[in-house]
Amino acid sequence: MQDLGISILFKGTNFLRLLGGLWTTVKISLIAVLISLPLGIILGLLMTSNSKFIKAVCRVYLDFIRIMPQLVLLFLVYFGATRTFGVNLSAFTSAVIVFVMWGTAEMGDLVRSALISIPKHQYDSAAALGMNSRQTFRYVILPQTVRRLLPPSINLITRMIKTTSLVVLIGMVEVLKVAQQIIDANRFEYPTASLWIYGVIFLLYFLICWPISLLSRALEKRWAD
Amino acid sequence: MNSDVLLEVKDLVKKFDDDTILDGINLSVHQGEVVVVLGPSGCGKSTLLRCINGLEPIQGGGVYLDGVTIDPGAKNISEMRQKVGMVFQSYDLFPHLTIMENITLAPRKVAGRSKEDAEAEARQLLERVSLLDKQDVYPRQLSGGQKQRVAIVRALCMHPEVMLFDEVTAALDPEMVREVLDVMLGLAAGGMTMVIVTHELSFARAIADRVIFIDGGRIVEEAPPKQFFTAPRTKRAQEFLNTFTFEDKDSQDS
Questions:
Q1: Looking at beta carbons, which residues of chain A come within 8 Å of B53?
Q2: For a designed S-S bond to A220, which of A92, A115, A151, B13 qualifies (C-beta 3.0 to 4.6 A apart)?
Q3: Nearest-CA residue of chain B relative to A126?
């Protein structure tokens, strides 16, 4: 059995350490999602505003964030901020900042496309019933937007959880880093450790992301018009 | 029909950029009158209805209900729109709300009526269009004709003084047209003031007190239905009516 190497998981606190590492990833994602949700809604509303200037500014922001690899953004904030402004951001704070910037951009684009996907006729028929623009937005447009928005924004959470594994490169000890430490420490005793450890990480990611995508799909189905 | 003018359109001009869609429309609709607007596609009929309800900014003239201007830029526009019911070609029910919620949303949130009161009236109206059993379903579960009848009920529940119908049967399968037109005939019989844009000529003839024929953004002919359909005065109206009739095969052969 020892040759299979699976017992490495149960040696010492290895499994708990892996879970701890995963928690770091999930924590960054959750905090980032919670902050970028309201910010993204504001950005999305701004992007559908009538002002060309505001639209252009939002567009530049969105494109900048999207074109830049998240890794570059992480380095920019973590190393760049320290060098340039003399602020000493912890890796955790830098990660949250970068993923909030990214999440806001993605969320903003989702909100924008959900808003413009509401047919113009919905505004007309609400107006024809005597609703003012505030009532139209609150009772007719917003509920429909949220329904269209929920599935893709839940998907955004899974994308974020997967992408946060990048924080290992600014020195954070998250699940992949823990894995490497375990594998390195047991290189001679368990030569096949990498298979087992990474296999478990695969399963852990799957167990977190799968229910989330199931939820997203279920909502999509339920609210299909 | 008495002679009180309820709705008045004066010298209405509507342009999209440099395109003049409506070029000086004058129209008075009396209390209880049913006016049918006919005309070739693109003549501005639908735009006229949208202007009457203040859904389009206008470039000249005005629309008056009981003597009060309907102006999309004015503060009272929502109030004015409550007095004008409108039904669209594409039904435009709110997909996230049940039939009952669709109908009672505006009466409750805009007119400030109680839930019980609004629902009681909605049930009464649904009964009249034979859809009471559909009150708790969502619009996607209804057929086109049923949706359109709900849309009519939704507009009626706001107690409008005049109802506008914008090609309400144009998107329907032929066998569903009748059920919607019957509802409208019922309304007309009940004394509702109506302005109807339609392509159903025999229906127009049956329901209209007066026919308005629009072409090129102007009213070309205005007549009682019988006269318009049997002896149109203008050439353009004649040509328009001719596009709806086909000669018998026998007479073509001979």
A1: 127-128
A2: A151
A3: B106
Mean pLDDT of A215-221: 83
CATH 3.40.50.300 fits B1-83+160-233, yes or no: yes
| Chain A hits for B150, Cβ within 8 Å | none
B111–A131 C-beta distance less than 8 A: no
Q: Which residue of A has its CA nearest to B107?
A: A129
Q: Do A128 and B111 touch (CB under 8 A)?
A: no
* Mutation choice for B interface testing from A118, A121, A129 by most B CBs within 10 A: A129
Token readout for B86 is 């409108």
| Average pLDDT taken over every residue of chain B | 91
Residue-level pLDDT at B254: 46
Comparing B220 with A90, which gets the higher pLDDT? B220
Structure-token pair, residue A22: 């995963």
Q: Which domains does chain A have, with CATH numbers?
A: 2-222 (1.10.3720.10)
Kindly provide the ipTM of the predicted complex, given to two decimals.
Answer: 0.87
What is the DSSP secondary-structure string of A35-88? HHHHHHHHHHHHHTSS-HHHHHHHHHHHHHHHHS-HHHHHHIIIIIHHHHH---
Whether B113 has its CB under 8 Å from any CB of chain A: the answer is no
- Number of A–B residue contacts, CB under 8 Å: 64
Predicted TM-score (pTM) of this structure = 0.80
B190 lies within 8 A of chain A by CB: no
- Find tokens 């559909």 and name the residue: B134
Task: Spell out the long-range contacts of A12-21 with Cβ–Cβ below 8 A and sequence spacing 24 or more.
Answer: A14/A182, A15/A200, A17/A178, A17/A181, A17/A182, A18/A175, A18/A178, A18/A179, A18/A182, A18/A197, A18/A200, A18/A201, A18/A204, A19/A204, A20/A178, A21/A173, A21/A174, A21/A175, A21/A176, A21/A177, A21/A178, A21/A179
CATH 3.40.50.300 maps onto chain B at 1-83+160-233
